[in-house]
Amino acid sequence: MACTECHTGAERKEAAGFPAVAKCQVCHKEYGAAIPSRRVYKLPDFVFFSHARHVKVECRSCHGDVWEQEQVTVFRAPKMKECVDCHKERHAAERCNVCHELGQ
Questions:
Q1: What is the C-alpha separation between 52 and 72, in angstroms, rounded?
Q2: For the residues of the chain, what is the DSSP string, one character each?
Q3: How many CB atoms lie within 10 A of CB 68?
Q4: How much is the pTM?
Q5: 47: in domain
Q6: Exposed, middle or buried: residue 6 (CB in 10 Å: 0-12, 13-18, 19+)?
Q7: Is residue 104 part of a domain?
Q8: Residue (of 46, 43, 51, 41) closest to 13 by Cα position
Q9: Is the distance from CB of 16 to CB of 7 less than 8 angstroms?
């Protein structure tokens, strides 16, 4: 199953979003109305990241193989070095204002 089956915003929005409980219950019937969830990745306010702009990058590049995890944890820390290394590897823009809101 593709990540975007549940995280439908990932292909066209800044945030991937989290599905409604009813969507989760299609597969996770055993949880009832209490699907255990928590935010795993959090960026500083001065960093801009758009899932839509990264749609050609496989989700597992940053999030790992979520299907193999018992509990979703940080696979690749959202640190500047990780992002710059990826941009260099993929020949993507490296200007500061691509990811940072300047003047804050």
A1: 22
A2: --GGGT-GGGGTSSS-----HHHHHTT-GGGTT-----------TTB---TGGGTTS-HHHHH--GGG-SS---SS---HHHHHHHHHHTT----HHHHB-TT-
A3: 7
A4: 0.80
A5: yes
A6: middle
A7: no
A8: 51
A9: yes
Q: Which of 62, 35, 16 is nearest to 8 (CA)?
A: 16
> CB-side exposure of 16: number of CA atoms within 13 Å?
17
Q: How far is 35 from 23, CA to CA, in rounded Å?
A: 11
92: containing domain: 3-99
Give residue for tokens 């800044």.
14
Any domain includes 72: yes
61-102: pLDDT as tens digits: 999 998 898 888 999 999 999 999 999 999 999 999 999 977
Question: How many domains is the chain partitioned into structurally?
Answer: 1
Q: How many CB atoms lie within 10 A of CB 28?
A: 12
